[in-house]
Amino acid sequence: MIRKIKTILILLFCMAFVLSYISGCASPASVNLIQKKSKSQTDTGEEVTSQRLDEIKNKLISPPVVLSHRSGEIIYGSGDRELIFIKGYADKGNTIEVYVNGVLAQSNVVVDTNGNFETSNGVEINEGKNIIKLIAVKPSGAKSLPTEFTIYLNIPQKVEYKIYENNENLKEIGSTYYSVEDNPGVYIKGKHMPMSSIFIKVNDNLVGEIESDDNGIFELSDIILKTGDNEIAVWAKTMDGFTSAPVSTNVKVVSNLDVPYPSTLTGYSKGNANYLNWTKSADTDFDSYKLVRVEDPCTNPEYPENDVIATFSNIGSTSYVDKNIISGRSYYYTLWTLDKGGRAISSNVIAIPKPVYSIQIKPLPATGDSTISRREWYYQPFEITNTGNVTVNIQPFMVWIKLDPSFDEEKEISPIWEVHLWNPENGQYYYSEEDIYETYVADWAKTDGYTVTEEKTEYREEYGKEDGDGFISERIDTVIKTTELTEKRSVNLKRVMKTTVKTTVTITDLTTGDKEKTTTTDSTTKLVEPEKVGSPIEGIKPGEKIIIEVKIQNIAAENGEKIIAHFHFAPVDCDGHFYTDEIVSTGDVIAIGRSRF
Question: Which residues pair with 568 in a beta bridge?
């Protein structure tokens, strides 16, 4: 190549000389002009021509020839950048400049005495298309035209994955993992090309080799980390043999074995808002406060998310104003404190404002006549309204059922009835008493009490006074009178029943007739509730109204025979305790029998 260039330069020089000579011969005037020139002028012209030829030769630089790569070549790499080493041929004494995508990547690459050069430090190319340009530079600074070619860097798809606490809660782990264990196990789930081999390394130890499924999904549980710094690397090998670059994640495990210290929650109602305050957490691994609110007193305000109304990530936050309320309605609040390990502890539960359990009952027009033939029904509806400020459960119970006449076992046919309590709107029954043929009275509802008397007589004998046969000398009469009285007052939502036991002992000397009488009285009290003969009516919200009907059926009652049913309804708390001062009653519901003709 160099020889060809030299030959071309010599031919160009000769042609210029010949043309100049011919031109001189064709023009006599020019000959005369030349002849007139002095010898010094001729010498100067020759020097100028020589300099111009030298300049032309210096500017004519051969572009580099690339021997190591071809344009359009595809290189497969494991990362998004790779080094390539370019070899080629250029004029000796020159240096080479290398440009990648218009940016100078290397300069002063030396061409040796044999015209060879190589980018010994490597040239960095990026993923995708890379345009490479090489320019030869002479010591004078003159540069050749660029030699340009294209190289494509193809990188296998990288593994995508996330790290979770476990495969149940799918709580993602960040750069710092606060764990309740010293060596927690974590769960990795990710995606790559289908049917690829996935490799997982933790702290330079290969802990898993699995295969992605037909959709490219892979997962591995119980990957053990250590307390402190951990490096997790995941890479894949495709079915066609290409290995992706490892994708690394650094996770620092902080062992957190202490339960957070609970805050104390207080609050009050003012205007149309509830004001909450709490003590600041003392937890060094504090994560957040979560304020939880519920309306149903039977629902514990639990964390997590379903009833959370506010979250505070600032440990200094100690107050909140809840304006999203219905004025007058009672709400239940608790504050949960969470640490970075996911542990949670609740404060006390408070109700704002104070809960009021109250219901009202109103009779509605009865359906049909209360005088019913056999197998007919009588319906007496009632409207019950929750007049309190909390969602309430209502416990129905039977106070009494009275039959007139009373059941007589000696009679072949006695009056038989059925009594039910139900919701006609949804068909749900709360009380059923079938084939009633005797009177039932709930003792709990009695306020006049009842008394049971027990009497017994014993004899005391003394021996050896007459013929050794013995004889009776004393008679002991004992009378035990037990009175139970249920008082109207209540304690802890139950009624107080007082039981008084009066014991009278009379000792009679049978030989003299003398008597000795001794009386002792012992009183005790206990809390009692009525027999819960009905199923509770649950979840009645403040202001809500429901319809309850007393259903009575004549099974075998004759003309004029009647039944009197009397129900109470008591609001109850979550443990089923009665608010006795808020009991409402149906009053007597009377049905009269009539024979069928």
Answer: 397, 585
